[in-house]
Amino acid sequence: MTEEKKIAKPILAQLQVHFDGLIPRNLFLVKLDTKLDKVYTTYGSTAIKDNIKIKFIIKNNEGFVCDYFLDADGYTEHRRYFFETDQVEMLENFEGQFGSSEFEDEDIDYEEHRRIVKHNTEVRKILIKKRFLKK
Q1: Looking at per-residue confidence, does 73 or 39 come out higher?
Q2: What are the C-alpha distances in Å from 18 to residues 12, 30, 85, 98, 127?
Q3: Domain-located, residue 135
Q4: In this prediction, what percent of the chain has a pLDDT beyond 70?
Q5: How many domains does one find in the chain?
Q6: Residue 46: inside a domain
Q7: Residue 69's beta-bridge partner residues?
Q8: 57 in a domain, yes or no?
């Protein structure tokens, strides 16, 4: 039987503060029993009425990092939060938002449309592999 990897309370509190900046007045998105390498889904606060959702996973690769996927009514962002430096890095993201991967814009040509569709297909594969999206 493998031992579950516990995360120290100060690390969890730091992530909670970071998420507080994204979702004002949220209700303890980061629980004290949060484990490493497990995907968690958390929804917006009572003030926002569930129109924001964050899926996140905390890893310890020579320092704690949290990859997360923010979905705010169809506008999405894929990010990585570094605990040690309190910095955020943008990861692979959909283009042509709102609606993740589907869009309509009469001002782009066919080649650009195909490029965006191909890009969004690759981003979707990455997010599915991370378990942030379902197939």
Answers
A1: 39
A2: 10, 10, 12, 24, 21
A3: no
A4: 80
A5: 1
A6: yes
A7: 55, 78
A8: yes
Closest by Cα among 74, 75, 87, 85 to 21: 87
Enter the tokens of residue 105: 């814009």
Give the contacts of 10 (CB within 8 A, at least 6 positions apart): none
Q: Which two tokens stand for residue 9?
A: 């309370």
Q: pLDDT tens across 59-96, in order?
A: 998 899 999 999 887 789 999 999 999 999 999 999 87
Q: Range of 24's domain? A: 9-129
110's tokens: 């066919």
Find the length of the chain: 135
3-state secondary structure 32-71: CCCECCCCEEEECCCCCCCCEEEEEEEEECCCEEEEEEEE
- Do β-strands 87-90 and 75-82 pair in parallel, antiparallel, or remain unpaired? antiparallel
Q: Is 134 within a domain?
A: no
Quick one: which of 63, 65, 26 has its CA closest to 44?
26
Host H or E run for residue 15 = helix 9-22
Q: Which two tokens stand for residue 82?
A: 């570094």
